[in-house]
Structure formats: C-alpha cells, structure tokens
C-alpha cells in the first residue's frame, strides 16, 4: 500500500526565501542610513575645522603684554581679568562662526583694562556657537564674585547670545542681531553696527530692531566692516572697511565702557 506524499513542502528549517530577502533589504537600508549619518557627521566635523579665521598675531601680542590684564586660558574659554582688581561686572562674549576666540581679545581689552570688567570669551564647540549647548552659567562660574553679567557676541555669536540673554543682566551685539524676541525682556542692550558691514548689514540690523527693547542703545561706527569687530583679517562676503584697527578700537572701546558703567551704576 503506497501512501501519497503531499505536494513539495518539506521543512528544511530555513525561513522562506521571501523573508530572507526582506531581511537583507532591511539590513541594507539600515547600513545605508548608518553610513550616511557617519558621512554627515564627518563632513560637519571637517567643515568646522577648515577655514577657521585665526587671530592676527600683533594685536594679540599687545594684549598678552599688557600688565593691566591677566589672562587665563581654559579648555572652554579665555578669561581676561583686570589685574589686581576684583571685578563686579562681567561680559561673556561669543565669537562669530569659525573665528578664533583670541581674535576678539584686543577689541575687548579696553573694557578690561580701563573698565575693570571681566571678559570671558567662549571657545564654541566645533567653532560654531549653535553647536555649543552649554548654559551661560558654564562661563559665569569661571569668575566668581561678579554681580552683574552681560552676554554678547559677534555675528552668529550674537544670535546665540540672544538665546542666552534670559540668564543675563544685559546684552551686547557687535555686528549682529537677534532672531528671538527680546522686546519685552527689560534687558539693557547695546548694539553696534558698521556702515561697511557686508554680512550683518545695517539694513538687516534695522529690520531686526523690533526684537530688541525699545530703549536699546543702537550705535553705528562709520567705516567699520564685519571683520572690524575682531582681529582676524578680511572675511568673504564682507564690505571693505574705511577705518583702520586703531580708529576702530578708539570708536568701539568708549561705547563698551559707557555701557558697562551704566550697568554698574545702582
């Protein structure tokens, strides 16, 4: 007696061919996504390190040799302190995108030496302020004893400063403007623009003016370009300055000193 066998479907212990093919497709998709993510992260890391605008040596050397200024270089920030004085006012300053933090030391030196203000220049992660998620306290804690803190920045560093301004007493914008609404914040604000700025143009700063408090101090330095607010050489897309570095310092420093003096006045 012969038994009939069922149509070919012997159990070999292997998953059906369609299921195996689906798994291969899934692994291929996952592998492609991981590879794309690695390439994207690698690309951002490479881009953030290429083309960083270095500080010019001569202005920086002048700051380093100034006996009125004490410099502390940490992994996260550069601290400029008035020598022999316990400052009561401080400024956390955030550099523009891909600009060497040291490039701002000379422009802010007068605030330290003549105004007894502590200046903390941040070292943004990946040289870009938007990638730096540290709170303002990460920098203000570096100088204990300061009662009044302003936060400020240049270019995109100023945009980031606006985001941190809620934890500060004042805001300083150099060649920059806010993307967030601070009009009802009650903050003391100093905004300094340059007539020859080709990036944060006077028109862009004027367009963003409603985002600042009504009593914000809006100043313009004749002949200043975007790069005039730091010592790092010319910058792509910028205008041509008609003011030299010495004249720029002579114009900017009194504005910063007057603003700081107003913060220190009860």
How does this structure look, described?
By secondary structure, this protein is of the alpha/beta class. The chain folds into two domains: 16-50; 57-264, 3-Layer(aba) Sandwich (Rossmann fold). The chain has helices at 17-49, 57-64, 105-113, 137-140, 156-164, 202-207, 245-264, and strands at residues 69-73, 77-82, 89-94, 117-122, 148-154, 170-174, 188-194, 217-221. Helix 3 (105-113) crosses helix 7. The chain is elongated. The chain starts with 16 loop residues before the first helix and ends with a helix. Mean pLDDT is 90; it is low at 1-10.
Q: Which terms would index this structure?
A:
elongated, Rossmann fold, 33% helix, 8-stranded mixed sheet, alpha/beta, disordered N terminus
CATH class of the largest domain: Alpha Beta
Point out poorly predicted stretches: 1-10
- What is the distance, rounded to the nearest whole angstrom, between the alpha carbons of the first and last residues? 112 Å
Specify the overall morphology: elongated
Task: Compute the average pLDDT.
Answer: 90
Q: What is the helix tally?
A: 7
CATH topology of the largest domain: Rossmann fold
Rg is: 27 Å
Number of individual domains: 2
Elements, N to C (H/E): HHEEEHEHEHEEHEH
What structural class should be given to the helix and strand makeup?
A: alpha/beta
Helix content: 25-40%
The major sheet is characterized as:
8 strands, mixed
Strand percentage = 15-25%
């Amino acid at each position: 007696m012969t038994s009939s066998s069922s149509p070919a479907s012997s159990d070999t212990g292997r998953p059906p061919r369609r299921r195996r093919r689906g798994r291969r497709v899934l692994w291929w998709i996952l592998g492609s996504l991981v590879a794309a993510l690695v390439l994207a992260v690698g690309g951002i890391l490479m881009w953030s390190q290429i083309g960083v605008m270095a500080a010019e040596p001569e202005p920086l050397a002048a700051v380093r040799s100034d006996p009125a200024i004490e410099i502390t270089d940490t992994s996260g920030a550069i601290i400029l302190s008035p020598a022999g004085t316990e400052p009561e006012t401080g400024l956390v300053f955030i550099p523009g995108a891909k600009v060497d933090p040291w490039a701002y030391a000379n422009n802010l030196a007068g605030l330290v030496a003549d105004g007894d203000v502590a200046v903390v220049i941040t070292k943004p992660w990946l040289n870009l302020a938007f990638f730096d998620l540290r709170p303002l306290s990460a920098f203000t804690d570096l100088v204990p004893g300061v009662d009044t803190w302003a936060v400020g920045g240049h270019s995109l560093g100023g945009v980031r400063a606006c985001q941190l301004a809620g934890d500060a007493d004042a805001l300083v914008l150099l060649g920059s403007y806010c993307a967030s609404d601070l009009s009802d914040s009650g903050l003391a604000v100093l905004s300094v623009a340059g007539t020859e700025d080709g990036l944060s143009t006077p028109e862009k700063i004027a367009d963003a003016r409603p985002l600042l408090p009504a009593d914000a101090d809006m100043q313009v330095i004749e002949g200043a370009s975007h790069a005039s607010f730091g010592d790092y050489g010319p910058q792509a897309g910028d205008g041509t300055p008609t003011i030299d570095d010495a004249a720029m310092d002579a114009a900017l420093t009194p504005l910063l000193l007057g603003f700081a003096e107003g913060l220190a006045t009860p």
